[in-house]
Design goal:
Mean pLDDT: 87
Radius of gyration: 33 Å
Distance between the termini: 64 Å
Structural class: alpha/beta
Strand content: 15-25%
Oligomer: single chain
Number of domains: 2
């Protein structure tokens, strides 16, 4: 390296104190080791610096820092270039093995990421699974065409069980809070509405329905454990609690069909009945003083925040209703 001064030669006392210090204090980082290998290969600190994409002063400073850390001189500088000292040749041989091991480590972790990113297992409560996830998954397909996605639908309890059992990577729920053992993030909001067939007497009322009247009426409802039922139970707890349901069904589609057939009213997600309300197959019945809003959440196991395709899907949910 032309014109450079080696400065004071490193001494053993310059090295970090002894084997008791943490390894990362005693062993140079990969960037420094790669630079040393480049010097050995190219015979010039300047050419090694260019190969590593750094300036020559930065490369010189890094070599000096490594020499101080190890307590030995590694490179001799002269007008004809740079060559390794005897200690430098030994360190370079060891550095080559470390870098090769790091390359193997990197290849292995890339393979793990590739295997992880090749599939995405999603589990969601019924409303989100039926009315929101299809659009999100289509958008994800354009970002990650090589990722195979599976979707399981169930109630909030099912979502929690599958995530906790490691059978899903990301879940979506509509209940009041995050199930035990899970972390989550609010991605949107929804509202439950009371609906009835157009011929039902409630649709011709001149006054709003009261919470007590709703609570006392046998309804067609989703099963216990669903987010819809959880929110409704909590909302009507102060009005005496829900009467025994006329029917309990595990599918929002089945509930809607039963209500349309004039069996009884129900309380369902506004997302789920939007089309039926527009077509007047169902009619919304106003209820006085009853709050039926709820948060839509993405959930995952505690300590396992979404990565890869799960993180990308989570990003696509921003702006949900």
């Amino acid at each position: 390296m032309s014109g450079e001064s080696a400065g004071r030669r490193p001494e053993a006392g310059d090295a970090d104190a002894g084997a008791g210090a943490p390894l990362h204090h005693r062993v140079p980082d990969l960037g420094a080791l790669e630079l040393l290998l480049a010097v050995a290969r190219l015979g010039s600190l300047g050419r090694a610096a260019r190969a590593q994409g750094i300036t020559q002063p930065a490369a010189s400073s890094r070599i000096r820092s490594m020499e101080r850390q190890l307590g030995v001189a590694l490179v001799e500088r002269s007008p004809r270039g740079s060559r390794l000292t005897e200690a430098g040749a030994l360190v370079t041989d060891w550095a080559r093995r470390v870098v090769e091991a790091a390359e193997a480590f990197d290849a292995g972790t890339q393979a793990l990421r590739g295997r992880r990113d090749s599939r995405l297992r999603v589990v969601a409560s019924m409303t989100i699974a039926e009315y929101l996830l299809p659009g999100w998954l289509i958008a994800l397909r354009t970002q990650r065409p090589g990722t195979a996605v599976s979707l399981a639908a169930g109630n909030t309890r099912d979502v929690a069980d599958r995530l906790l059992a490691g059978a899903a990577d990301l879940g979506f729920v509509e209940g009041l809070d995050v199930p035990a053992g899970l972390d989550g993030a609010v991605i949107g909001h929804d509202r439950l509405v009371v609906v009835a067939a157009p011929s039902h007497p409630w649709t011709r009322r001149r006054t709003e329905l009261t919470a007590a009247e709703l609570a006392a009426t046998p309804l067609i409802l989703r099963e216990r454990g669903s987010g819809t039922r959880q929110v409704l139970d909590a909302a009507l707890a102060g009005a005496g609690g829900l009467a025994a349901p006329l029917l309990e069904l595990a599918s929002t589609t089945a509930v809607k069909s039963a209500v349309v057939s004039e069996a009884a009213p129900s309380v369902l997600s506004e997302l789920a009945v939007r089309e039926e309300l527009t077509a007047r197959r169902l009619v919304e019945v106003p209820v006085r003083g009853l709050r039926l809003g709820r948060e839509l959440r993405a959930v995952w196991r505690v300590g396992q925040r979404p990565v890869g395709p799960a993180r990308d899907l989570l990003g696509l949910t921003r702006g949900a209703p």
